Amino acid sequence: FRYGLFKQRIAKEGQEEIAEDWLEKFSPWEIVRHDVVYPVRFFGHVEILPDGRRKSAGGEVLNALAYDVPIPGYKTKNAISLRLWDAKASAEDFNLFQFNDGQYESAAQLHSRAQQICAVLYPGDATEEGKLLRLKQQFFLCSASLQDIIFRFKERKSDRVSGKWSEFPSKVAVQMNDTHPTLAIPELMRLLMDEEGLGWDEAWDVTNKTVAYTNHTVLPEALEKWSQSVMRKLLPRQMEIIEEIDKRFREMVISTRKDMEGKLDSMSVLDNSPQKPVVRMANLCVVSAHTVNGVAELHSNILKEELFADYVSIWPKKFQNKTNGITPRRWLRFCNPELSEIVTKWLKTDQWTSNLDLLTGLRKFADDEKLHAEWAAAKLASKKRLAKHVLDATGVTIDPTSLFDIQIKRIHEYKRQLMNILGAVYRYKKLKEMSAEEKQKVTPRTVMVGGKAFATYTNAKRIVKLVNDVGAVVNNDPDVNKYLKVVFIPNYNVSVAEVLIPGSELSQHISTAGMEASGTSNMKFSLNGCVIIGTLDGANVEIREEVGEDNFFLFGAKADQVAGLRKDRENGLFKPDPRFEEAKQYIRSGTFGTYDYTPLLDSLEGNSGFGRGDYFLVGYDFPSYIDAQARVDEAYKDKKRWIKMSILNTAGSGKFSSDRTIDQYAKEIWGITANPVP
After folding, report:
1. SS3 of residue 669 by DSSP
2. 299 is catalytic
3. Is-catalytic flag, 276?
4. N or C: which end of the chain has fewer CB within 10 A?
5. Where does 328-664 sit in CATH, by number?
């Protein structure tokens, strides 16, 4: 995407989005492949051929041009290509007559539409045009990739005609990462039937054995539902195939599972409600894929017991768990060289970079004073590097001897950056009320928050502004700024994370239980010897099991309590903690400027109604959050205890290597075995 998601700038009004310029500077790693081009058709109609076969025709055809980015293996002889696509229109789509007549824009209309496809990741979809562009992006990438896969499959064995397609699933795996690539299902069916001449049953067998689906969210707004009329207009042939998949699924349930007939309306691919008929992409994935997985133990259980429970009774063996992982090469060896050298020295091997389970060998040294001294020195070096980044990026000076407390992730109400900043506001108010002697006993803390708010997500942008407004007051208050600083880190991305994560000592993963599928930054922090404060959500559950309960600061409601707590709230049974009311009131008082935070704070008020009723349980969890933060302050005063906790976090991170994750996908979903180069 030429202009990325966006580059984030923080101004007086809060977040500003500007276009990313990464491609203007030229990317030396990508190799354009002018020899690899595929046509992708939008709109048009379905033609019926004399032999009864159906085919897409008319509409507009864009070309997908391949770019290859080499991905070298770590200490191996292997390199593979990551294949990317750019959208282009051809020369014959340029109207020379119109151009020479001065109609420059209409002369290059299709070229302009091609550019839109690869311009921006996740374009705003509040308008019909925005929705159409997102659907175009999804289909364009799916179609180009599948055409390429089929071309390479046929190229490797020239006699592959109808009848040899049964080999396809043993050579190709298509893993649909969330619902964005769902159109791979009808498009693979179309290519097999319309282009390769297979019948429905054979094409369906191949498709079902080839595609698998990873679910990444239980948030309703992220489980895509596309308007049937938009789909029919943009992709008429694919929509016919989706309708046929839905029809056959319904027939199968009625004929084999009479007891499930009453559930069909919610299980079917098409929601035909007259008000708003939609295609449910998650349902299409579950119905069509041979395997469905979640990305953490808790998340996969929620999928089986709640979100996809009806499908489990039809296909009990279809559902699995694959806990996410991270690469230790980037997220420890590369980004934290000082700590890496210590790990290698004490383990007497650097093999941990490709066998992360070896980190458990650090446990026996967890009380060793020599290791403690080296570990503390490495952490301080990372903290100084982070302090320099903060000064360069924000102009704020922070003290590397204070507790570095970091929350970096996409800004979203369920991730509860609002709870974090309310906690910081409460801490600031208490500091203001303390005598000089009382302040001497306080654990000095630097609270850092980073992340991008989606351009049209108003409350998320208000949270970004609130963090900045609180920081502006706290950091310039001479009575307090020795004991507390609040900093918003702008333009969070991987490069920023590589500096922040090694320098962090406490990391906040505080989403409402049951709402974060897994999270992976929690794993990166833990691997770097950072202690987590968090809820029992996503991979936090497994991290806590691996690193030990004493080395994790737990608070908050559990996932199985959330529905009941929301019901209690609706029934007016929630009684807010005075500390929660105090923090909100301090913001309303104007202490942090004149901006009107009423709409943001109102989301925490009332018992029900749109944008009210504290859906994410900030108020319910706030008291236990504040209590957990007090336990953090106490623990940090005991340097020996804190460093031991830090060592045991790194030592318990072996499970969270992406090598383990990929190995499980390979064996348990794709059915492939390793083939090492000699």
Report:
1. helix
2. no
3. no
4. C
5. 3.40.50.2000
